[in-house]
Fold glucose-6-phosphate 1-epimerase.
Amino acid sequence: MAASVSSVVVLDRGNNTTCTINLHGATIVSWRVNNQEQLFVSKLAVFDGQKSIRGGIPIVFPHFGQWAYGPQHGFARTSRWSVEKQPEPLDNGDIEALFSLVDNPITKQMWNYSFKLVLRVILREKELQVSFNLYNTSVEPFQFNMLFHTYLKVPDVRKCNISGLQGCMYVDKTKENGIYQEPREMVTVNHWTDRIYQNTQQEHVISNVVSGRKMKMIKYNMPDTVIWNPWDVTSNTMSDFGEDEYPNMICVEAGIVITPITLNPNNTYEGTIVLQVM
Ligand SMILES: O=P(O)(O)OC[C@H]1O[C@@H](O)[C@H](O)[C@@H](O)[C@@H]1O
């Protein structure tokens, strides 16, 4: 079914603090804190209910990267999700909503398993918590990748520092998947960057996001972190990304990438990121 303008769910915590989820991919397309947008969405992003949305927080599942059986980064970001629970205030005033994706004939053509994937979004005063629960409802085990492909909005990517990567091994996709070790305490991005860092620290702090503030990302059960910026080198290969936009975004993507998880029947796996405006 094609997504339409009405295919969005808005969490509103008051004080112009909102989070908007597009049911196409359950993609978080906006997170505003006191009216200030924290996420980057390309001006050329396509909202046709077909293509994945270029920006915000798309969900990569069940496969990361190019995939022999389906589209790059899997089908979750191009599937129509259901609202499991409409936004409701919790006792402390935070707002929670739940979304779900269940196997169907289209997903089974690519990945012949039964599953239920639930996304829980909690909007706090200065925090956004995004969790997934994956249930294996098949009769056999399956393996999966999962990643929150978070596009942060930044005034100038060259001024951002990212902590939590020092000493980690990484796959450099810009260098024929060569494997290197990160020596830097603070990683900067000054050129085309596409790296899968393995077993990163639980927290990343990204400096110089909107208004020169810092953003903390805390992750649970999501061991790896992808850092991506297409720069002018690969911007022009994407029809839904402006050639002048790369300075204004940085993708810091927490996920299960290098070693897929094996999930047994009737078992569940939960992972979370918390984004915190500092
Ligand atoms: O264009 P897509 O499919 O949204 O992917 C964007 C990028 O996503 C990143 O996670 C990958 O590491 C990159 O290789 C990829 O280019």
Notes: The chain has two helices and 19 strands. The longest helix spans residues 105-110. The radius of gyration is 18 Å. Residues 8-154+220-277 form a domain with the Beta-galactosidase; Chain A, domain 5 fold (CATH 2.70.98.10).
